[in-house]
Amino acid sequence: MMKEQISFTEFEYRQRRITTRRELFLQEMDRIVPWAQCVALIEPVYPQSGRGRQPIGVETMLRMYLLQTWFRLSAKGTEEAIYDSYAMKQFMAIRFDEEQVPDATTLSRFRRLLLKNNLVDPIMALVNAALSVAHKTVRSGSITDAAVVKKPSKKSGKDK
Questions:
Q1: Domain edges within the chain
Q2: What 8-state DSSP symbol labels residue 15?
Q3: How far is CA 136 from CA 69, 71, 139, in A?
Q4: What whole-number distance in Å separates Cα of residue 57 and Cα of residue 102?
Q5: Per-residue pLDDT tens for 34-57?
Q6: pLDDT at 4 exceeding the cut of 60
Q7: CA nearest 29: which of 104, 137, 143?
Q8: pTM of structure
Q9: Each residue of 59-84: pLDDT tens digit?
Q10: What is the spatial distance between Cα 108 and Cα 41, in angstroms, rounded to a whole number?
Q11: Alpha-helix runs per DSSP H in 43-98
């Protein structure tokens, strides 16, 4: 049996001393969420592959949407967080040497598709039911980004 070759980043990451709360949360959610049931709700309304660009997998988009929801991120913030957080990348099951993170526009379209087809509540009901069976609950959090912004200059009275 042949083992999958791991990247240098994965090797280095496995050598760390602690597992973060975010990583533990995402590992738990990966186990608890009824992926097949949620995907089955979305597939009938999800774009099918045709002549153009292949659509991104339903489960990949659902995982990204749930990250956005749980961490209260914008679509762009979710895209960047996945690139920035190894735990989120692992949850998404994305290998950067094979594929890229879906962009913010794609996530926004997916979110609109769920809303238009009234799928948000049924998906969350499935997730919440699975959490209940596991005797768990989720409290959404947020990731705050620090940013440097240019401070508006104050002009003195004689400069006006």
A1: 8-159
A2: T
A3: 17, 17, 10
A4: 10
A5: 999 999 999 999 988 766 667 889
A6: yes
A7: 137
A8: 0.78
A9: 999 999 999 999 999 999 999 999 99
A10: 18
A11: 58-71, 75-84, 86-92
